[in-house]
Amino acid sequence: MSGGRTFARRVARAMAATAVLSALLSAVLTTAIAWTSLLDREDERLRGAAQTLGLEVPAAMDEATARGHADDEQAEVAVAGMRIALYRAGAFVGGDASLRPSAAEGCRTTGRGWRQCRVTLPTGAVEVTSDLAAARSQRSLLLGAALLAALLAGLAGLGLSGAVSARIARPLQRLREEVAAVDADAPGRALPGGGDGYAETDALRASLGEMLSRLDEALSQSRRFAANAAHELRTPLGTMQAELELSAEGVLPEEVRDSQGRVLRTLGGLNALVERLLILAAPVESLRGAREAVSLSDVVEEVRAALDPAARQRVRSAVDEGLHVRGDALLLRVMLENVVGNALKFAPSGAVTVRAEADGDAVTLEVTDEGPGVAPCDRQRVFDAFYRSAGARAEGVRGHGVGLALVARIARAHGGSAAFEDAPAGARLLLRLPRWAPAERDATMRAL
After folding, report:
1. What pLDDT was estimated at residue 67?
2. How confident is the model at residue 445 (pLDDT cuts 50, 70, 90)?
């Protein structure tokens, strides 16, 4: 699947987003923890300097001597980027006079970005501070490295998420392919593959299998009913037609002969409908009988020859005599009879053209008419059995909605397809059928 929303893409995007968010969160937390650790180490350094001053200045030392020691300590710690001051009873004794006392015991970060600690000792209260510029620089470097790592992790997650999500979605993709391969004529034979070992997809496969089995049974019952009904109707209809044809050979009044002719035409239509129903009710496998080289030009001429003279004049053909398809001649004739008959019915006064040309290993058979055409919204549904478009009903065109369903079924039984395409005017039906190649004929002759 090349476009649109897919489960795999959603999983991939979710994985990539999760990787990026996790990496960013990790970067922020790492930076916060590292900053806390840096502050703890700085506090330990400041407290150590305060303890050193407390050891050098005992409580019994006079104030003048204490001032001298505090000033000497200030000179020593200044080299390390610190400032220190000694206070007794709230009064400054020595050290850095610009260092104001803190309101409470402990360490804090000042508004100027310095770290200041107050340590109360027997000799007095020691205030010691240091500039955090170096620590902030380390924090910035750490944050940058963490964000870079987050970016790389996000890119890696984005790169790997596609492969990982594709692997996660593979069981669903396999199930989709199995469902797509279901034969519409025999849905009960679907899903031959075993389970993937994943509870979710195995349960879905089992549910689909049960549904398709029920659908297959319902389809079989409807086909049996249609086949039985057609068989039951075939014999009495045939008998009635034979008796009427026999009685028509006698001398009859004109009005009786006209009435008899109308009845015979009606019976002929009913017999044709019964034959169509029998073909629709038959399994596709039974329609895939012996395959032979069938000349398309012969089939077209047989169909034209079966038409009445007026209709025959309206049907034009352009089919190469050397063009052959692989299939059943009788079914292909029935298919083309329905296509041409449908075109003549919907274009009661215009021409119907039948063309055929080779297209690789297939043959494209094109039938066009000068009728009203088929609306785009009906181009698929007209191949459903018993469906009649709103246009056909509005124009009062007679029919049962069986002919095109029969065409599509015979085409599918031959490994081909039927579809209405755009046309400048009227309808344009394209039939694709497998081509019978000369090499294929030679292989058949060697097998014989």
Report:
1. 92
2. very low
Amino acid letter, 350: G
Question: CB–CB of 107/44 below 8 Å?
Answer: no
Lowest-confidence region among 71-80, 132-141, 239-248? 239-248
Mark which of 85, 116, 136 sits at the end of a domain: 136
CA dist 424 to 145, 357, 373, 428, Å? 67, 20, 10, 9
Q: What is the pLDDT of residue 359?
A: 84
**Is the same domain home to 414 and 433?**
yes
Q: Which of 354, 362, 375 is nearest to 423 (CA)?
A: 375
Cite the DSSP H helix spans in 282-375.
Answer: 284-287, 296-305, 309-314, 329-346
315 & 427 share domain = yes
Give how far the C-alpha of residue 220 lies from the chain's centroid of Cα atoms, to the nearest Å: 31
Q: Confirm whether 364 is domain-assigned.
A: yes
**Residue 79 dihedral angles phi and psi, to the nearest 5°:** -60, -30
Q: To which H or E segment does residue 357 belong?
A: strand 352-359
Are residue 263 and residue 309 in the same domain, yes or no? Answer: no
Residues 26 and 60 in one domain: yes
Of 281, 298, 328, the residue at which a domain comes to its end is 281
DSSP 369: E
What distances in angstroms separate CA 85 from CA 48, 96, 100, 181, 270, one per listed residue? 14, 5, 8, 87, 118
Is the CB of residue 441 less than 8 Å from the CB of residue 293?
yes
d(CA 416, CA 89): 106
Same domain, 269 and 356: no
Q: Give the pLDDT confidence score for residue 95 in this predicted structure.
A: 92
Same-domain status, 315 and 416: yes
Mean pLDDT to the nearest integer, 428-444: 73
Q: Which domain holds residue 298?
A: 289-447
Question: Which tens digit of pLDDT belongs to each residue from 402-416?
Answer: 788 888 888 888 888
Q: Are residues 341 and 443 in the same domain?
A: yes
C-alpha pair distances (Å), 355 with each of 331, 365, 369, 425:
19, 6, 12, 16
Q: 422 and 319 in one domain?
A: yes
* 225 is a domain residue: yes
